[in-house]
Specification:
The chain is of the alpha/beta class. The chain has 2 domains: about 200 residues, Spore Coat Polysaccharide Biosynthesis Protein SpsA, Chain A (Alpha-Beta Complex), CATH 3.90.550.10; about 100 residues, no CATH class. Helix content is about 40%, strand content about 20%. It is built from 11 helices and 9 strands. Strands 1, 2, 3, 4, 5, 6, 7, 8 and 9 form a 9-stranded mixed beta sheet that branches. Helix 1 runs parallel beside helix 2 and helix 8 runs antiparallel to helix 9. It starts with a strand and ends with a helix.
Length: about 325
Amino acid sequence: MPKVSVIVPVYNVEKYLEKCLNSLVSQTLDDIEIIVVNDGSPDNSQKIIDSFGKKYPKLVKGYIKENGGLSDARNYGLNYATGEYIGFVDSDDYVEPTMFEKMYNKAIEGNFDVVACDINSIEEGKTKYISSLVRNDLFTKNDIKKQMIDIYPVAWNKLYKKSLFDDGIRFKKNIWYEDVEFLYRLFPYITSIGVIKEPLINYVQRTGSISNVFDERLYNCVDNWNGIIEFYKKNNVFDEYYDELEYCYVRYLLATFIKNAAAFDKIEYNKAVNLALDNVHKYFPNYKKNKYLSNLKRGLYLKLFNKGISKIIYKKYH
């Protein structure tokens, strides 16, 4: 059994893939498997995958499937992962040589369910440090619940104990914000989190990836959070995590979702504002009493948010 399985979904990334795979086959961890899933990519990515598979047959395992999106490719890779721990690396990013050795050693040292590291965000040649926002190792349910309100919500700066996936937790397919949706459904299963306060993964932001053309998938943010709430209710842990879910729900809808919607035209933006407010009032009508809002600067914004403030936000982006 490998120590770590790294799942790499591939679609139209021939420009970046070689650098990504080079960083993985060069890992200092001595027992790793790299599962590369070609998600029906129409470019020359498969030639690159084949060359790495031929050169590193004991490390690289390539699979080809019909196009189903990022989440579907990750889920496909999970079916073939045999490692003690699972990592996800997007194929346009690359990692530091010691990433998985350090993260695996940390995981074993504390028997952690999840280990997080910091990030280098790279855009147009400039590097920006991003914290995982996990400030110290966590061993109690209460501390892990508190971490829900403040964590960098991506899947690829973390290492996961394989057993976390035994209950069928997978990435939701055909949506935006799939990492947020995945992580918040995973939280009830996590009993410990370790942290390495060092940027071990390089997040490459492609120029021109942000578009001002409206896309209906923007509303996945709302649908995802409604689904998360229903997930907690179905699994009888909604009341246990109520304060954390309430805060996160309101923050994502009234801050993240509204900010993203502000990029679009006024009619669509107003539609988004109304949808966010309607859902917040439906699920958490008394959210202004939430304990996490009292000591945070962000809390004042969330308490005060209304249609008047939404107009100020729109003007800021136009």
